[in-house]
């Protein structure tokens, strides 16, 4: 959250202007802070000195630190223009507090939500992940269908701000009544440990009644009863897991099962390897733009309803 912008050609100006920021309106008295500074193409070039001046200004306003959890204060000086911000998030936003157990190469919840939206998912159709890992796609889909707020199970740094309203925030986080849907969000995996992790994560996220998890291989995959929906999967793609020869066979088997048993369903596959997407034999449109995922560049490949 940006709290100040001003020109600071030297440290004396930075010190004076930082002391003019209304810190008591922003943070509680005694609030601990950590100040991180970066300087580029500026006459103030010593980042440690810049951070020290801002921290001294904060302490002069708020008094000695008395709390254990600090608020991060970010100071960025570029071409003598100084911007001071408070970190309102704390932990990275994809850490939603619901994933206590993870499988190998897990997909971030924020990316799962992005790919679901890109596939046109709005919460009114079933979703099936045939290689669900720790259940990320299934749990995100159930949360969207239930209208649950992402991040409802975690804490945020803004809860330590002076203007934070606990009652208003509690109203936003209140437990939602799960809808009575004519379908379930299904995850399958051949790894019993991954299935157990998925079930535990769904319980923690409060969506277990909307989900179902099965320990089975791709070859045992069957179309669920009810309306057609979306099959979405983040399969292993060799760069991080497995060897590519075996993975081509796995993708080929997945494509054959989907073509044979899932008429009317759409398919979305997230992969860093175009050759593996093509190995499914599915009628994909042009893939989506590359997205960073764990040091890799992945794309979403989508089909229309299968015939």
Order of helices and strands: EHHEHEEHEHHEHEEHEHEE
CATH class of the largest domain: Alpha Beta
What's the architecture of the largest domain, going by CATH?
Answer: 3-Layer(aba) Sandwich
Helix and strand content put the structural class at alpha/beta
% residues in beta strands: 15-25%
Query: Got a strand count?
Result: 11
How many domain modules? 2
* Unreliable stretches covering 5 or more consecutive residues: none
Global morphology: elongated
Provide the residue-averaged pLDDT.
Answer: 93
Strand order of the largest sheet: 7-6-5-8-9-11-10
Helical amount: 25-40%
SSE arrangement:
Elements: E1 2-7, H1 11-19, H2 23-26, E2 33-40, H3 47-62, E3 71-78, E4 81-86, H4 109-118, E5 127-129, H5 136-146, H6 166-173, E6 185-189, H7 192-205, E7 211-215, E8 230-233, H8 244-261, E9 266-271, H9 274-279, E10 291-293, E11 296-302
Parallel strand pairs: 2-3, 5-6, 5-8, 6-7, 8-9
Antiparallel strand pairs: 1-4, 3-4, 9-11, 10-11
GO molecular function: nucleic acid binding; rRNA (guanine-N2-)-methyltransferase activity; rRNA (guanine-N7-)-methyltransferase activity
Enzyme class: transferase
EC number: 2.1.1.-
Overview of this structure, please?
Helix 8 links the parallel strand 8 and strand 9. The protein has 9 helices and 11 strands. The model has no long low-confidence stretch (mean pLDDT about 95). Helix 1 packs parallel to helix 3. It has 2 domains: about 80 residues, VC0802-like; about 170 residues, Vaccinia Virus protein VP39 (Rossmann fold, 3-Layer(aba) Sandwich). With about 300 residues, the protein is of the alpha/beta class. Strands 7-6-5-8-9-11-10 form a 7-stranded mixed β-sheet. Strands 1-4-3-2 form a 4-stranded mixed β-sheet, covered by helices on one side. The termini are far apart. Its EC number is 2.1.1.-. One of its GO terms (molecular function) is rRNA (guanine-N7-)-methyltransferase activity. This is Putative N6-adenine-specific DNA methylase. It is an enzyme of class 2 (transferase). InterPro entries: DNA_methylase_N6_adenine_CS, RlmKL-like_Mtase, RlmKL-like_Mtase_CS, SAM-dependent_MTases_sf.
